[in-house]
Write a structure and sequence with these properties.
It comes from Steatornis caripensis (Oilbird). The protein has 246 residues and is an alpha/beta fold. The chain is built from 8 helices and 7 strands. Helix 1 (2-16) packs parallel to helix 7.
Amino acid sequence: MTQAVILFLRACVVLLAMPVYLLWFLGIWEPFCKKIFFPFFLERLSEVHKRKTKKQKQELFRNLPDFKSPSGELKVLEIGTGCGANFEFYPPGCKVTCTDVNTNCQQGLSRSMNKNPHIHYERFIVAPGEDLHQVPSGSMDAVVCTLVLCSVHNVNSTLKEALRVLRPGGAFYFLEHVAADRSSWKYFWQQVYYPTWKLIFDGCCLTREIWKNLEQAKFSEVNLQHIKVDLPLMPIEPHIIGYAVK
């Protein structure tokens, strides 16, 4: 019965979003989304999300300097850099390599770089999280991934790549929205919105239980918390935050 209700409500949401589905059918939506809509939306969401999670991010990245290499350098790789919403939380002098599959966020990224001259920007790599072959194995002290694992094609492959590029003792930092408790109304509505949300927001999946992927990955230590981020009218309130050590 519940599944039938979900399917009915999904159909209602599809009807409401019919113009988007029509554009998708005509092959117009995807290029428009990647080039114009999603970069615009992402930059604004990033600002709101950053305000809502500022204290959590400050606490999350507080121990980032502890993972400096024996030479004293701190090399950070950020997967899915987007508009650079994490830069202000990185310690001075760290060397950051940015990666993303979408190069249309460059204007927002440049603005963030200009606002945060305290860090050194090494290079920008156009690559998905599942394939970071341009980054040598064991070359990074830390890997950062925030609001990205919801939309990668394969979470496990992305975590495997993060482990590969990390040096032994390096850390993987994460802050991701995840599926709500399966018995909750929030999860019910996540299921209702899932197909249309994924289409409109460039592959973003609402019901991924990413904490399970992290717990099953081959990290030696996982420090993980479930938190709620108050984002009105959006089905992405449940989050996980923490770091895992190689």
